[in-house]
Amino acid sequence: MPLKNACKPNASKNTKGGSAMTQKDTNFFNIDDMSQGIARTLTDGVTTRIFAGEKAMISIVRIEPNATGAIHSHPQEQWGLMIEGSAIRIQGGEEIPVKKGDFWVSPGGVKHGVIGGPDGAVILDVFSPPREEYTCPGSGFGVE
Fold it and tell me: Taking the model in full, what pTM does it have?
């Protein structure tokens, strides 16, 4: 089912003049290319680049040292993978230290948040289904 109010059908930067788009142009990305994806500032010191598909979306979250993400919940299931650094993952009221290589699942409706470690962190989040509020550039976690 397509996203109702999506700003973009996918998060790629897919304009190359009038030439035909290829798979490489529309469906391949690089985690370090900050020009790709949908930019969103979640809170001070926490930013993300979002890549939305039809059934799932990924979010590359960059957290500055000791920055705090708001405790929130949403109906979508969310998986996270610590790519760089460390953090305290707050989930269901527990504070759980996480480091590079750790991954976790946050079931829909479970309150969660994060505090960046002393060197900050980079986390790859996967949402299913996609979060409609994340298909547009902007700020905030998109939840009340």
Answer: 0.85
